[in-house]
Every structure is written in C-alpha cells, then in structure tokens.
Amino acid sequence: MKKMATWALAFVFALSFALPHGLVSAQSSAMKFIVDGVEVKGYEQPFMSQDQVLIPVEDLFTEAGYKVSKDKSGKVNVTNTHLTVDFNAAAHSIAVNGKKADTEFPLTLKNAGNYVSGEFLSQLEGFKVEVSEDQKTVNITTNRVQDVDAFFEKMLAAELTSYSSKMTLDQKMESSLEAEAIDMLMDIEMNVIQDPIAMYMLSKMTMNLEGEEMEDVSETYFTKDGYFQKIGDKWVKFDDALTDGLLQASVAQADPLAQLELTKKFTKGVHIFEYDDVYVMTQTLTNEEFGEMMEEAMSLLTGLLPAELTGGSTVDDSIVSENEDAAIEAEEVAVDVAEDATEEDAVEEDATDEATEEDAVEEDATDEATEEEGIENIFDDLAINIEEYYVVTTIDKKTLFPLDTKGTTHMTMGVDEDTISIKQTIAGTFSNFNKVNEITIPADVIKNAISMEEYMKELELEFGEAESAEK
User: Fold this and answer.
1) Single pTM value for the model
2) Are 90 and 74 within 8 A, CB to CB?
3) Domain 149-289+382-470 adopts which CATH fold?
4) Parallel, antiparallel, or unpaired: how do β-strands 127-131 and 137-142 relate?
5) What number of other Cβ atoms are within 10 A of residue 175's Cβ?
6) Do 127 and 140 touch, CB atoms closer than 8 A?
7) Is the distance from CB of 176 to CB of 71 less than 8 angstroms?
8) pLDDT digits (tens, 9 = 90+) for 318-377
9) What is the per-residue pLDDT across 394-445, written as a single tens digit (0 to 9) for each?
C-alpha cells in the first residue's frame, strides 16, 4: 500500500511539470490553424486555455518561413536573421534578438510540443493573431510578401548599373580518406559594371592543408578587351573564345527577363519579409531543386565549355572548315544544274535540299543534347546531396538594391570510394551603387600577359623538372 502511494505521489509530481506555467490546465479541443491563408495540419494544434490561444512553436515558425532548429537539450531557435527568438524550456525563458522577454516559457508541453500564447506572438514584429468568435479557428498573418514573382519583377527592374562588393567565404572540407580537414578562408573585393559587362576582382585565399598554411593573392580583370588573371607573379590572358563565352553568359545573367524566368522556377523555398526600411529574403534549396537548377544551368554551359568536358565532338576545326568549303562548292554546282533543269527536276532538288537542311538541324540538336548529357553525367557521378542551404539577403526597401547577404551551406558528394563533406559560411556587403563608372585593364598588364597555352607549358616544364629532381 505504501509503495502504491509512493508511485501515485511521484506521478502527481511529474504531471505538475507538464502543466502550463501561470495558466490553468483546463483546455478545449484543438482549433483550426491558419498561417498566411494556409491551413497547418499536424499532431500539434492550437487550443484555448483560460481565454488564451496557445500555439505550437515549431509548426508555426516553420510555416511562417523561418529557419527552425532544436538542440539535444530541447532549446528551440527560430530566425530570419532580422528577428531571432530563442525558446529555452529548461530555463523557462524566451529571448527576442538576445533580450529576455517577460513571457515565461514553456507555457505548456501538451503533446510533448512547446506552445506560446497568441498575446506574446502579437508582440513580435511582423505577426498578427486573430481568434474567431466561436474560438474554433486561429488566423495568423505575417509580414511576408505574398506575391514573390511580382516582387522579383520589381527588383530586377531596379536600375542597378554598377556596384562594389566585399565577400568572405569560410570553407571546411572533410574527406573519408583523409585524416585532416582542409580549411579555406577567402576574402574577395569586386567592382562590377553591368552594361557593358566589366569586372575587377581582388581576392586573398588562406588555406590550411595538412597542417601547413598557404596564402595566395590574385587579381582579375574582365572586360570586352579580355579576361586577365594574375597567377602567382604572372599575368595570364585567357583564350578569346573562352572570354566570348563568359561575356555571353554574363549578358544573359544581366538580362532581367532571363533572370526572372529562371528565378520563378525556384521560389518555393524563398520567403520575403517586409520591415520598415528593408526587405529580408531567405532561401532554402532541396536536393530536387538543386537538380532542377543544374538542368537549367546545363543550357547556359552548353557551348561555353570545352568539348572534352561537355562530351561533345572534338573534330578539328580545319576539317569542319574544309567540309564547309566543299558544301559551298556543291551548292554552287547545284544552282548551275538547276538553271538548266526542268521544273520537275527543280522541285525534286528543292525537296532534297530541304531534307538536307532538316538533317543538319537534327545533327546540331543531337550535338547539343550530347553536350548536355556530358555535363549532366559529371554531376550524376558526384552524387551531390544538399544537407543544408540557407541564404539571407537584406534589400533596401526604397531602391530594391541588395545591401548584404549571408548564408550557410553544407553538401556531401561521393567520388569513387571517397565521401566528401563541404561546409561553407558566406557573408558579404554591397555598396557604391551606380558609382563605378569605368574599369580599365592597365596597359602593362596587357603588354606583359602570357597566353594560357604558354602558362600551361611553363607548368609542365616546372613539373617535369621537379619530378627529375626527386629521382
């Protein structure tokens, strides 16, 4: 009997921790849960207690477009970087942007989930809570932009002709075959002009490889006069064919309509929050969306990459030229014959020419498809998996120019028997809007630059000498 009483007291004691702090435990049935017009269904649902609506934390902020994370101790963090809320059940506290709130937490642990009151939620910037008269529905509206496509149209139409930027990329790469990780820190400064496309970039890279720290500083000029990069102590000029391709790709990227059509396809993970002076745009990316994005990128890369990378034809240009000359001569002969031929013969010849043209079009289409398949195989072989992708950009509300961006990404990939993990944190700022008037490649850079072919030959020579010295 004493043992049963002891168990009963223990049960009552444990149950007391599950009751709402500062609220009576009387609860009504679950309510209909709507966030920005979308009904949220799940195991945890809002309910009324003492004329207060209690709302499940994780389901609410996930549907509202926030990044939601929970650690082993049960602490819940929700953020869009502009607004960050930390829910700590063990400490019975809530912190908003680092400052402790008056509301005690958790209000309840019903269904093992954490709930907050509608009163507290209404005090947060960007949230409005309404309970229906019959107390069967709770409507929560946020400050999210509802028409994302229309917002992108306005943003892409903004007259941004030039800008400067500073970016920091911190990367950690780990391999299943290597004991030590490779750490890399890159600082980049850029000046960019949109039309005609021009860029100057100064980058500093620090890398820790097998306990040895290496540092490299590089400069790059990219204008209609060519693509020049300083590698070590030498300036190298990239091939004009590659430069033309890069310029074409850059022009396509700068085209608002082309950008909009591409962006519209990947807005599922985009949320844009409106505040007094800025918009905050967050973006996530799934494996499926990453795959679709790669497919879209294929069409841009096709024709710009070397044939051996894209899987396309590697026929010598001189042979192609000879074939073209022969085709022209054959066409001239055909014209002479056609002048003396009967009308019936001319019709048959036209039909033959049309068939030949159709064959040529089909052949071009086949070549392009082959190139796309070649690039696609490269990504398929890597077996890329997106573990995390979360990028946030702050946008000036008046000009719609980007002010800063930050993000975290984590992807894994398989290469043969090796599994590689790459984690990155990115942070950048934008400034000097429409004030970069000209980017000119210095005369001494153009004069002293060597070709990529010459540079590769020098590398081969140095490598050969190093191998000989080892032997």
Assistant:
1) 0.74
2) yes
3) outer membrane lipoprotein receptor (LolB), chain A (2.50.20)
4) antiparallel
5) 15
6) yes
7) no
8) 323 333 333 333 334 333 433 443 444 444 444 445 545 555 545 554 444 444 454 455
9) 999 999 999 999 999 999 988 778 899 999 999 999 999 999 999 999 999 9
Which of 45, 75, 81, 82 is closest to 60 using CA atoms?
Answer: 45
Q: Please list, in sequence order, all residues whose beta carbon lies within 8 angstroms of the beta carbon of residue 398, skipping any fewer than 6 positions away.
A: 277
Helices (H) and strands (E) in the chain, counts: 12, 24
Token pair 């007291």: residue: 9
CA distance 215 to 184: 10
Q: Which amino acid is at 269?
A: G
Q: CA nearest 114: which of 90, 132, 136? A: 90
Our CA dihedral for 83, 89, 91, 95, rounded to 10 degrees, sits at 10
Tokens read off for 427: 């942070």
Question: What ranges do the domains of the chain cover?
Answer: 2-143, 149-289+382-470
Residue 185's φ and ψ, nearest 5 degrees, are -125, 125
**Six-digit token string for 382:** 């890597």
Residue with tokens 């994302």: 148
CATH of 2-143, one of 3.50.50.60, 3.30.457.10, 3.40.50.10330, 3.40.50.970: 3.30.457.10
pLDDT digits (tens, 9 = 90+) for 177-236: 887 889 999 999 999 998 888 899 999 999 987 778 899 999 999 998 899 999 888 999
Q: If DSSP codes are grouped into helix, strand and coil, which group holds residue 23?
A: coil
